[in-house]
Specification:
Elements (H helix, E strand, L loop, with lengths): L5 H18 L9 H13 L3 H14 L6 H13 L3 H13 L7 H14 L2 H13 L6 H12 L4 H14 L7 H14 L2 H13 L2 H7 L3 H16 L4 H13 L6 H13 L3 H8 L4
Length: 284
């Protein structure tokens, strides 16, 4: 369903009416590529992805006009924001093949966000691979968004596989602590504390957490641990909370107020607060 922006759509409707009159063949008045580009832009601004896409198809397939890069980008963007990630990706590929235009990373990130919102893991991976073909290096926002595409649809196993494939394909520098944190955060939103713990183990196994601590990147490391702790609250997993706090203590990572809050909540939810809190609080 399109996102409707009333005032913008009012202008677009007026323009479409004039465009329709032109298309019906008034003598000496024939729509050209500039006419199409203007109408597409108005529809895109109004959030009307169907109209924008149909007009661009008419522009390319029937009129044989080659859209400018900004026209392609407007259609990719409006389709992505409307959750039509497959349509957006097709337009993006046409943009590269027919229009001979190389999209920027912001457009890819918008498309990946659309994949994440709909949980389209495989499509997100295709988008990353397409970036590699065009020698566009995905940044950590792109990685994080692609991984979230899997987890938010309950495909945490696919997300883990995606992280492995990212390393295998050697995209740029590969996933870093922020990508793993995004994966853990997505698990937390999905209520999957066990997967959150597994991603934490992977983060340690790959040496990324150690590197962060070694380079005094305390903030990101603490954020990862706090995100894992937040996943344990709902189910009152105080034993796992205790384990995390021991790890933090051994790493020299000092708990903050958020750490204390999550630890206490996990103990409260456990149904055995006095016993669990007595063990946990000594590490805070």
């Amino acid at each position: 369903m399109s996102t409707l922006l009333p005032q913008s759509w009012h202008y677009a409707q007026s323009a479409l009416k004039l465009f329709d009159e032109m298309s019906k063949g008034k003598p000496g008045i024939i729509p050209n590529e500039h006419t199409f580009a203007t109408i597409v832009a108005l529809c895109a601004k109004a959030g009307k992805w169907e109209e924008a896409l149909l007009l661009m198809k008419e522009m390319t397939l029937i009129r044989r006009f080659v859209p400018k890069s900004h026209t392609y980008l407007q259609v990719v963007r409006v389709c992505s924001r409307a959750g039509q990630s497959e349509q957006a990706f097709e337009v993006l590929k046409e943009m590269c093949n027919v229009g001979n235009v190389k999209p920027n990373i912001q457009i890819y990130t918008t498309l990946l966000k659309s994949c994440a919102d709909k949980g389209k893991c495989e499509l997100a991976m295709e988008v990353l691979e397409n970036m590699k073909v065009l020698t566009i290096e995905p940044d950590m926002i792109a990685y994080s968004t692609a991984v979230s595409a899997c987890i938010l649809n309950g495909e945490s196993l696919q997300a883990a596989k995606m992280l492995e494939r990212i390393k295998q394909y050697n995209y740029g520098t590969g996933p870093d602590i922020f990508v793993y944190r995004a994966a853990i955060h997505s698990c937390t939103k999905h209520g999957d504390w066990e997967e959150a713990m597994r991603f934490l183990e992977a983060l340690k196994r790959d040496g990324i957490l150690f590197e962060a601590l070694k380079n005094d990147r305390i903030g990101p490391a603490l954020a990862v641990y706090n995100t894992v702790l937040s996943s344990l609250v709902k189910y009152g997993r105080w034993e796992q909370t205790l384990k995390i706090l021991v790890e933090m203590n051994n790493s020299g990572l000092k708990p903050n107020n958020l750490t204390v809050r999550y630890a206490r909540l996990a103990c409260e939810k456990s149904g055995m607060f006095s016993h669990s809190w007595a063990k946990v609080k000594v590490l805070l």
